[in-house]
User: What shape does this take?
Amino acid sequence: MKITRHEFLKTVALGGLTTTLASLGEISMLAQTKAAEQGKAVDFVALLGGEPAPMFEKGIGALGGIERFVKKGDRVTIKPNIGWDKTPELAGNTNPDLIVSLINACKDAGAKEIVVFDNTCDNWRMCYEHSGIEEAAKKAGAVVMPANEERYYREVKLPKGIALKSAMIHQAILDCDVWFNVPVLKNHGGAKMTIAMKNLMGIVWDRRAFHQKGLDQSIADIGTIEKPAALNIVDAYRIMKTNGPRGRNASDVELTKALFMSTDPVAVDTAATKFFGQFVNMPLDNVKYLPMGETHKLGTMNVGDLSQERFKF
Assistant: This one.
């Protein structure tokens, strides 16, 4: 199924957002204009119809450039989804080409160190290798860090949490100057969708606590950490339509060639869920952690609110 530019605009645009759909060669880009017109930073961009690297380059440019987020000498952490022993074509993990583009941009901005990691579900060595992310990230100059032992984590209190009051967070998040959340868009059996907010389960040591205390509320609660991601970059180049989060075979996957980027995890997940609904029936009401995240003031389900001061980076 190929989604048209018109369908993309109609699907992704949320109430109150003044947008422009620009054609950049094969790539179409939906970006805020309201914020830009008011002299404020653009907080939301969605792109369609390109390869991962060109879409990222267009998107980060529209957001103000990587220098908006990364300063010279910064220690940067990148948190993709590397949770599954799957090759890129099966869409279980974040596309390695997107990760390389982000690494290169951070290097260009003068980052001192760039770390890539995930607390995987399948065997971590197999996930890191077969996802293609380990090899690609190392070649690009990043440090690929394991997350398979408790010694990599430190306890962090979550005073705003409702179900989850504390969590063991990976040191790569706690010790960096800035970090990026880079999930892949896919179906999830329990949470219905795994996108930016759900991807934070991979920064935590004990994921069982999420299921024991209430999965959706815990997903919202982990987002209240004191150091949130500077930018959420949702890989929708391929989406896993069914049998997520691990998937079974290629029939679960659709080549959709899209990318969503926002400083607001609730907004980017809302838009990505609406886009996903073009391929599989997935009403927003089914994704319970979205309004919970909005209640926590992690962001908004109305992209038109993104220009408010509380969402400026």
In short: Confidence is low (pLDDT under 50) at residues 15-21, 305-313. The CA atoms of residues 68 and 99 lie 18 Å apart. The chain has one domain: 5-311.
